[in-house]
Amino acid sequence: MTTTLQPSVRPAPAGRATPHKVLAKAGLYVFLLANAAFVTYLFNAAGVGSNKLVNFGRLTGLYGALAMAFQLLLVARLPWLDRRLGMDKLTSWHRWVGFTIFWMLVGHLTFIAFGNAGDSGPIAEIIRQATELEGILRALVAWTIIMVVGVVSARFARRRMAYETWHFIHLYTYIAIFLAFTHQVAVGSTFRKSALATGYWWGLWAFALGSVVIGRLVLPFWRNWRHQFRVAAVVPEAHNVVSVYIEGKDLDRLGAKAGQFFLWRFLTKDRWWQANPFSLSAAPNGKYLRLTAKALGEGSADVRNIKVGTRVFAEGPYGAFTTMHQTKPNALLVAGGVGVTPIRALLEEIKGHVVVLYRVSDPKEAVLLHELEGLARAKGAVLRLVTGSSKTITANGPLLGPDNIAALVPDVEDRDVFICGPNGMTDAVVRSLSELGVPSNQIHAERFALAN
């Protein structure tokens, strides 16, 4: 069933194109390919030996080192990249680059060991190099760490492991990268062959590590020192939902946008070590930031017990789920469950005529519904509460099937669509939109995953 608030439609403003994502993706591709080409040039300039297996081993090692540096750039949480691609896209790249590193290092060790083995065999050759050559033992430790991280990151293992355990193991990658770098400095013939090669590799690693230091340490600490975040109010929204208002200094200069999220640390003795990702549930107004949390886990359930005046360490804002990527003058916002929080914030900020589909099983579960109704009236938007079980079939088919979406929003092809909700709901809506012919650049469905 559906409930509709539908005032008169106002004229929509002119459309505009946004090349931000294209520019960011192109920048990453150009950076990676240009560096791969230069690494290949340096490899050839250093001299190629007659042993083809050793040559392949050296080259895969160099590509693996380049991939490690690129990986650091992806996890640095640099605002320019994050606002254009979003954490979910960067995390997807992070995953594929991680497996590239895994196989490059497998090839590096295998080709080098077999290429130098002779009559003694590859295992004996590995043991000989580890005991006789500087830097080899460090390389083997780094190799082992990367192998372990690669195995536990495979889907079959990841599904069977608690996130905290996986994350803790994943952090050892930083140790592996440091050990791999010292190995390259100690025995890398290409690294030491010329001043150009040495300067290039030092510069690449400095850029990659500097990006991590700036994005993960300098910017968060500077922002928190500057803005001095504190809890201003804790307001119950329902029996299992609470909104937290965060005040601070110069919030109008924070640069946060509706649809973005922060990693929030409430600095009490029991919670200071725990960071929870919550989207802004109201558009930033320069006076306060608001998050709304539902009791889904231990961390979010405990938010209602936070005291007014508690200091807050906030990392962010993160995410590309913003009006920055709107390409059409009008929009469709689709919310499900706790995904209503960034949708509610977007409704407050987005321009043009807006339709909101709010998917809940039962109307009683529609958190922030009264706020959505008020915003819809004020903005001349259409709000439709779509209720029923996942098995509900309407006269137009499944609730979020293509025919029903087309019936609810006849001009959906001419709108940007912003989707936030459970993965199953998001996947269903994206499939339906694709069947309806909505161009992919008009579909914005950021999944809030973090590259570690």
TrEMBL record:
<feature type="domain" description="FAD-binding FR-type">
    <location>
        <begin position="224"/>
        <end position="324"/>
    </location>
</feature>
<dbReference type="Pfam" id="PF00175">
    <property type="entry name" value="NAD_binding_1"/>
</dbReference>
<feature type="transmembrane region" description="Helical">
    <location>
        <begin position="26"/>
        <end position="44"/>
    </location>
</feature>
<dbReference type="Pfam" id="PF01794">
    <property type="entry name" value="Ferric_reduct"/>
</dbReference>
<keyword id="KW-1133">Transmembrane helix</keyword>
<feature type="transmembrane region" description="Helical">
    <location>
        <begin position="169"/>
        <end position="187"/>
    </location>
</feature>
<keyword id="KW-0285">Flavoprotein</keyword>
<dbReference type="InterPro" id="IPR039261">
    <property type="entry name" value="FNR_nucleotide-bd"/>
</dbReference>
<feature type="transmembrane region" description="Helical">
    <location>
        <begin position="96"/>
        <end position="115"/>
    </location>
</feature>
<keyword id="KW-0472">Membrane</keyword>
<feature type="transmembrane region" description="Helical">
    <location>
        <begin position="199"/>
        <end position="219"/>
    </location>
</feature>
<dbReference type="InterPro" id="IPR013112">
    <property type="entry name" value="FAD-bd_8"/>
</dbReference>
<dbReference type="Pfam" id="PF08022">
    <property type="entry name" value="FAD_binding_8"/>
</dbReference>
<dbReference type="InterPro" id="IPR013130">
    <property type="entry name" value="Fe3_Rdtase_TM_dom"/>
</dbReference>
<keyword id="KW-0001">2Fe-2S</keyword>
<keyword id="KW-0408">Iron</keyword>
<keyword id="KW-0274">FAD</keyword>
<dbReference type="InterPro" id="IPR017927">
    <property type="entry name" value="FAD-bd_FR_type"/>
</dbReference>
<feature type="transmembrane region" description="Helical">
    <location>
        <begin position="56"/>
        <end position="75"/>
    </location>
</feature>
<keyword id="KW-0479">Metal-binding</keyword>
<feature type="transmembrane region" description="Helical">
    <location>
        <begin position="135"/>
        <end position="157"/>
    </location>
</feature>
<dbReference type="InterPro" id="IPR001433">
    <property type="entry name" value="OxRdtase_FAD/NAD-bd"/>
</dbReference>
<dbReference type="InterPro" id="IPR050415">
    <property type="entry name" value="MRET"/>
</dbReference>
<keyword id="KW-0411">Iron-sulfur</keyword>
<keyword id="KW-0560">Oxidoreductase</keyword>
<keyword id="KW-0812">Transmembrane</keyword>
<dbReference type="InterPro" id="IPR017938">
    <property type="entry name" value="Riboflavin_synthase-like_b-brl"/>
</dbReference>
<protein>
    <submittedName>
        <fullName>Oxidoreductase</fullName>
    </submittedName>
</protein>
